[in-house]
């Protein structure tokens, strides 16, 4: 899909549960690129989880740190960078991501929810209040509505569901 990308960095953007980290890791392995996950970089450098940062410092501080991390990572050419779902909300982040190719992993709220439900949800401060399956799907629907215009700025879109069969694609197929 990406053809000859000549060492350019690849940024994966998309909603929580779209598989950015899993696909990113596989893609980096295939291309023999470095792999970075901005949430992981933040957690390692602060010694705190994303949830803790949201709780103790607030979302705004988290966003500032996310921007600094993206800025730092823009120095690496042969890299796959999986971003947090909200990274696309900042103009400054786009300025950094434009050094590379931006790929949007796009999926339906139901697909995202099925991947997040359970333990995964607790590590996402923006979703932790949503108890039932329906509440989680509605919350994701709302977020997707607000964010679609930003995700659409990506250079490439990869759908999580097969357009004809509706089947959800495995990370292996998406990164291949
Ligand atoms: C967020 C997504 C999370 C994380 C934070 C905020 C968002 O990353 O950065 O909880 O605003 O969508 P993932 O997309 O990797 O879950």
From TrEMBL:
<keyword id="KW-0057">Aromatic amino acid biosynthesis</keyword>
<dbReference type="GO" id="GO:0009507">
    <property type="term" value="C:chloroplast"/>
</dbReference>
<comment type="similarity">
    <text>Belongs to the shikimate kinase family.</text>
</comment>
<keyword id="KW-0547">Nucleotide-binding</keyword>
<protein>
    <recommendedName>
        <fullName>shikimate kinase</fullName>
        <ecNumber>2.7.1.71</ecNumber>
    </recommendedName>
</protein>
<keyword id="KW-0028">Amino-acid biosynthesis</keyword>
<comment type="pathway">
    <text>Metabolic intermediate biosynthesis; chorismate biosynthesis; chorismate from D-erythrose 4-phosphate and phosphoenolpyruvate: step 5/7.</text>
</comment>
<dbReference type="GO" id="GO:0004765">
    <property type="term" value="F:shikimate kinase activity"/>
</dbReference>
<keyword id="KW-0418">Kinase</keyword>
<dbReference type="GO" id="GO:0008652">
    <property type="term" value="P:amino acid biosynthetic process"/>
</dbReference>
<keyword id="KW-0067">ATP-binding</keyword>
<dbReference type="GO" id="GO:0005829">
    <property type="term" value="C:cytosol"/>
</dbReference>
<comment type="function">
    <text>Catalyzes the specific phosphorylation of the 3-hydroxyl group of shikimic acid using ATP as a cosubstrate.</text>
</comment>
<dbReference type="GO" id="GO:0009423">
    <property type="term" value="P:chorismate biosynthetic process"/>
</dbReference>
<dbReference type="GO" id="GO:0005524">
    <property type="term" value="F:ATP binding"/>
</dbReference>
<keyword id="KW-0808">Transferase</keyword>
<dbReference type="GO" id="GO:0009073">
    <property type="term" value="P:aromatic amino acid family biosynthetic process"/>
</dbReference>
């Amino acid at each position: 899909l990406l053809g000859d990308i000549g060492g350019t960095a690849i940024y994966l953007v998309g909603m929580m549960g779209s598989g950015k980290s899993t696909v990113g890791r596989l893609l980096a392995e295939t291309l023999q690129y470095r792999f970075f996950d901005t949430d992981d970089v933040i957690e390692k450098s602060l010694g705190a989880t994303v949830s803790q940062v949201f709780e103790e410092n607030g979302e705004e501080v988290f966003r500032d740190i996310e921007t600094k991390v993206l800025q730092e990572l823009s120095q690496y050419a042969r890299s796959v960078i999986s971003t947090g779902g909200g990274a696309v909300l900042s103009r400054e982040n786009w300025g950094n991501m434009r050094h590379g190719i931006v790929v949007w992993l796009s999926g339906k709220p139901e697909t995202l929810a099925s991947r997040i439900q359970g333990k995964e949800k607790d590590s996402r401060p923006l979703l932790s209040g949503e108890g039932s399956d329906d509440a989680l799907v509605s919350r994701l629907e709302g977020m997707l509505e607000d964010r679609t215009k930003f995700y659409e700025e990506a250079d490439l879109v990869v759908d999580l569901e097969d357009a004809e069969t509706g089947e959800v694609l495995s990370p292996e197929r998406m990164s291949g």
